[in-house]
Structure formats: structure tokens, C-alpha cells
Amino acid sequence: MIEGFHCPEGDVTFEHCSNCKRECRPRPYLDWLIDNNKDRRNLLSPSMIWSCPRSVLLNQYTDYYVTPDSRYWMFYGTVVHSIMEQWKVEGIREKRINFKLGRFELSGCPDCLISCEGGYELIDFKTTNTVYRRKDSDEIEMKYLLKPEYEGQLAVYAHGLAQNGIKVVRAKLYYFARSSKSYIPCVTVPVEIKPAMVEEAIQRCEFIQSHFDNKTLPPYQDCQKEFNWKCKLYCEVNQFCWEDASQKGEL
Ligand code: SF4
Ligand code: SF4
Fold first, then answer.
1. pLDDT-based confidence at 94, cuts 50/70/90?
2. Which CATH code fits 41-247?
3. Is the CB of 68 under 6 A from ligand 1?
4. What is the mean pLDDT of the chain?
5. Whose CA is nearest to atom 7 of ligand 2?
6. Are 176 and 127 in contact (CB under 8 A)?
7. Where are the domains of the chain?
8. Mean pLDDT of the region 92-118
């Protein structure tokens, strides 16, 4: 889990940072990061199921430090969610649900549900750095927006909501970009609810849980096949992952 900050003071605990007078970044930003990262995460959640299994497990096995800047994406995402809470629309907002996924008990908070013919439309607010245009046309490049992990996350939520008496008939993502260089600043992305992804989610949970029970990691190369794009830039535990893979001769 995250122990604290890697910063001009060295590797420091969150408690140390709370009492530090340097204010290397705005204090409310640092305090917000501390509040939202100091507790241990559950092993499984609707979003973690679709993350790299090695990163989910290393997050449980290791204590590590992050720079305050590396978590700005999380802050920006919460800013967007807070603004969206002011959206004046009839619906169910941020309702926490508990549900079963196979033999696992999960908990989650779908962003927004809007009543529509036959049930509800499930909406998830997402942020991204940039919305790209396709090279060969003026169309939006959807492959960076309609990610399998988001389809999986919404399929799992639809499954959980059904257990809570809420039928999801369709879903979409509302994306908000950070960069002013984005082709357009925000975009709607319809998502098909694929019930088959629920079975895949259960298998992923079983896979992660079995490694957790044995305190092992799945082979590096297997995770690489799916999550190669994350390793260098978006994985906070990559050093631990590479050390382990190197020791086992998997690199
Ligand atoms: S205020 Fe900045 S320099 Fe001081 S401990 Fe916190 S992150 Fe480190
Ligand atoms: S470095 Fe890559 S393979 Fe290793 S934990 Fe991170 S995302 Fe997974």
C-alpha cells in the first residue's frame, strides 16, 4: 500500500507530511491526497478486477511511496465528479451497493443512474488527458476511450445493480479531457453491456485471489501481454515488479 510521499524531504510518511511546513504543493491538495490514500485498499473492487493482476497483488504485498504530482490525475477525476454532482438531473447518484460476484462480496459506487424506458441508463464519468482525432478522418479515435476494462467495469456494475433491484438497459461514459490540446474537450461514449464479461470478471477474481492466498505473483510475461502499455508510465509498482521478474529470470 502507499506509505507516504517521495518528495524533497525524502521518503516520508503521510503523518510526517501533515506536519511539514514546506508546502511544496498547495496544502489542501496534499491533505486531500493523504485523506484519499492513507487506508489500505480492498484486494478486489469493480475497477481493480480489470487492472494488471501483478499490480493489484504488489499493491497488497509492498509498501511504497508516490510523488505528490503523480496522483494529480486522481485529484482531477474527483474535481470532475464533484462538479457532476451538481448536474440537475433526475436519477440515482453515487449509490453504494454491495453485491456478489461468484463467491466474492464486492462493493462499489456507480456514478449515476438515469431512469429510461425499461430500466436505467448507467453513466460513468471519466477523465483522460487528450481526446484524439483519427489520423484518416475527422472522427474521434475511440480505441483510447472505449477500453475493455471500462466495458468490464460497467458489466460488473450492471450485474451488481440487478442484485439491488436496479435493471440497467444501457450505459455510457462521459469523458472530460485535461489537456487544452485535446481535439474536443469532452465526449460521450456509448458502451454495450456485455453479460459475458461478468463470467470473465469472476475468473479474474479467482485468479487474483488464488495468487493472494499463496502470496505469489503471476508470471511477468503473461501480464505484459495485456498491460504492456501501462508498465513504464502508469504503473506505480513497476520497480517492485521488475525486481521480482529479474530475480526469477523472467525479464
Ligand atoms: S509538504 Fe511537500 S516536502 Fe513536505 S513532506 Fe509533504 S510532500 Fe514532502
Ligand atoms: S510493471 Fe507492468 S506487468 Fe508489472 S505490475 Fe506494472 S503493469 Fe503489471
1. confident
2. 3.90.320.10
3. yes
4. 96
5. 231
6. yes
7. 41-247
8. 95
